[in-house]
Design goal:
CATH class of the largest domain: Alpha Beta
Strand order of the largest sheet: 11-10-9-12-13-17-16
Largest sheet: 7 strands, mixed
Radius of gyration: 25 Å
Number of helices: 9
Strand content: 15-25%
CATH architecture of the largest domain: 3-Layer(aba) Sandwich
Distance between the termini: 69 Å
CATH topology of the largest domain: Rossmann fold
Length: about 350
């Protein structure tokens, strides 16, 4: 174990020794420059970031990933909250630094593919630990991708015990907030019918319990459709009320279900599936399943799950960085489609773009 007391102030030594041994830095550097790692030993830069530009910090984090954990000292943004503009240079008695809100450090961690631990306070500075994330596969890694899947294979990928089912996008503040605003735009009334396509385990329907105090939840009629049987069992357990029913079916067989007209039709990350005949399904939904007073709520992912985390932007097979080309094309298509059928379209949200199309 490295001996800090010979080169660092006692208070800082005590602070570093509170870090778990497996992550505790074994190398101390003064200059904020990259260096070659000799195993995942951790590196601590004891010179505060000060006026180091963001591009230099990004370069440093990327070059030092091999250390496992990178420890940096940064000025605490709290004292200047509400007084300084993000990115503004601040002048103190004996030092100058760039004001960075906590959001910028989170963005730096995400861009460097690191996990940012809860900071430790050191005087007017914060000790930041950026832990490099190990490369892991995505939940989308699927040897049968692009091929016709049986119900059992589909259930294995999206069912109750799948990695996909562990993610709960509706616990993301931005997603939940935009969904509740979309419910407001739907203008639902007691007795209205709500249909959720690709409902999975019913997480999006639970939001209605918190919408307008939950007073309208028991007065609506909910139907959820999905192909994953085990996920539907979870949905039934999550929503056991008599006004909620769940049907195991392929969305391509939707016309055979003979459903009554619906006042709200939701499809979150569903209509983009390559296995669906998009135009045929949309035409059936708008012309046959939508009530005279109907709202569509369609969700488009503007994020991706990687290493068990939600990250901004959608990457493609040919580009690891977020690429918005496909998303922009889809939004343009659906906006034009619903507008041509005299629906009023609005777009909003973060991590998921929520398209709301209302017939009134």
């Amino acid at each position: 174990m490295i001996e800090y007391r010979n080169s660092l102030p006692p208070e800082l030594c005590r602070l570093l020794e509170t870090i778990p041994t497996a992550r505790r830095p074994q190398l101390i550097r003064t200059e904020l420059t990259g260096c070659q790692a000799a195993g995942r030993q951790g590196v601590f830069f004891n010179r505060p970031l000060g006026t180091t530009p963001v591009t230099a910090i990004q370069k440093l984090l990327r070059e030092c990933r091999g250390f496992g954990s990178i420890f940096l000292l940064a000025h605490d943004p709290d004292p200047a909250h509400g007084l300084q503009v993000d990115g503004e240079t601040c002048d103190g008695k004996d030092e100058t630094w760039i004001y960075r809100p906590w959001r910028q450090f989170l963005d730096l961690a995400e861009l460097a593919d690191c996990y940012l631990h809860t900071p430790l306070r050191y005087g007017n500075l914060l000790l930041l630990e950026f832990e490099a994330m190990e490369q892991r596969g995505s939940w989308k890694d699927d040897p049968l991708r692009g091929e016709e899947k049986s119900a059992a294979e589909y259930d294995e990928k999206y069912g109750a015990h799948s990695l996909y089912n562990r993610f709960n996008r509706f616990e993301e503040p931005w997603v939940a907030d935009e969904m509740l605003h979309a419910f407001d735009r739907a203008g639902l009334h007691p007795g209205d019918r709500v249909l959720s396509l690709g409902v999975n385990s019913g997480k999006e329907l639970t939001l209605f319990r918190h919408w307008r105090g939950g007073g309208l939840f028991e007065k609506l009629q909910f139907t959820g459709i999905d192909l994953a049987a085990s996920a539907l069992e979870q949905a039934q357990e999550r929503l056991p009320e008599d006004n909620c029913r769940f049907i195991q079916a392929d969305l391509r067989e939707l016309p055979r279900l003979d459903l009554p007209p619906q006042n709200l039709i939701m499809a979150i990350s569903v209509l983009q599936s390559s296995s669906l005949l998009r135009d045929d399904l949309l035409n059936y939904l708008v012309r046959s399943l939508a009530a005279q007073r109907c709202t569509f709520l369609v969700g488009f992912p503007d994020s991706r799950y990687a290493r068990l985390r939600l990250l901004q932007g959608v990457s493609t097979a040919h580009n690891a960085r977020p690429d918005y080309t496909k998303l922009v094309k889809e939004l343009r298509y659906y906006t034009r489609y619903f507008s041509s059928h005299r629906y009023r379209v609005t777009l909003g949200g973060r991590y998921y773009v929520i398209l709301t199309a209302s017939s009134f």
